[in-house]
Amino acid sequence: MSDVLDLACELIRRRSVTPDDAGCQALLAERLRRAGFRIEHLRHGEVDNLWAVHGDGVPTLAFLGHTDVVPSGPEAVWHSPPFEPVVRLCDHPDRENQKAAIHDRTLHLYGRGAADMKGAVAAMAVALERFVAAHPRHDGRVALLLTSDEEGPANLDGVRKVAEGFRARGERIDWCVVGEPSAKATLGDLIRVGRRGSLSGTLVVRGVQGHVAYPEKALNPIHAFAPALAALAAERWDEGNADFPPTSFQVSNLNAGTGANNVIPGELTALINFRYCTASRAEDLRARTEAILRRHGLDFVLEWNLSGEPFLTPPGGRLRDAVVGVCRDLRGMEPEQSTGGGTSDGRFIAPLGAEVVELGPVNATIHKVDECVDVAELERLPALYEAICERLLAS
Ligand SMILES: [Zn+2]
Fold this sequence. Notes:
Layout: H1 3-13, H2 24-34, E1 38-41, E2 49-55, E3 60-66, E4 86-89, E5 107-110, H3 114-134, E6 141-147, H4 159-169, E7 175-178, E8 190-192, E9 194-195, E10 197-206, E11 210-211, H5 221-234, E12 248-256, E13 263-264, E14 267-276, H6 282-295, E15 299-308, E16 311-312, H7 318-331, E17 336-338, H8 346-349, E18 355-358, E19 372-374, H9 375-393
Helix pairs in contact: 1-3, 3-9, 5-6, 7-9
Zinc ion (ZN) binds next to helix 3.
Binding site for Zn(2+) 1: 66, 116, 180
Protein name: Succinyl-diaminopimelate desuccinylase
């Protein structure tokens, strides 16, 4: 069994359902300490974070990952228990993807977190061990940053909190490689070079409750909100730009009513979300939303939550060039350079001034029953991460 496969299995065996690290970071810290890394455990609340550094001075190349996983769902539905890693022929091809049919004859590692993202975390650790063994006096610093709070809903005590601490103490990161599963059909076919921002709002529209037979004595917040909603849904927030699609506005929940059909409700609640690009600023989206609501004469309260600003690592940056070059030279492919998908913890590192690029395994089964990763691709991943270190830090 290869080193990276073995380590990935060790991690999957630890039942680290978010935000529980379940000993994953202790295992990785011990390995990296033996390889000469300086280890710092940054525990916030019930969240474990690990910062392991090798070398001194500038620049700093950091790998970023998470040890927590999403819950398995009903274990009986899995072909093999989610926290008992198993290597077997793929019996769960992605039928929507023709190319995935070839997975039928390839070995896959099964287990919760195999693809998201214990496989990549194992690959990062192995790559770092190999790199510092081959280049004990490399330029600057290489580092690994891990959290056990990436998959959770709050995301408060993980990389967000670590990044605040780094900013306060002047800890610098120049380049950050995130190992989130980025690939579509095969390792190296897609890298992420940025992410859209996410801005949420909880809107309460106030009316006056009353009897449906006496509407003149009530104010129906559903009727009042409907034209405003139509205007919000039709609004063109921006045109996008060369790197991002246009900003999108969605209502994810809409609630009103007392349960009785003869009562006009007193208020309406809507949850809204913007996935926005670098062509718009959060404060402008907020102001424009509120202006539309006011224009429709609504009595409302709107509470905003900015969960991540958009970021972009522009072309021509050394990290982006290095990652593209590694995909080209080691995988023989020109990776698609995307800003799509959800958010990632890279959003907390980018504002520190770091270039951020995401390169990881195929994401077809993440968060699903029978999550798996192609063993051959997992075994190639350390060489990719090591080559990125070589291109940026080998002297
Ligand atoms: Zn993940």
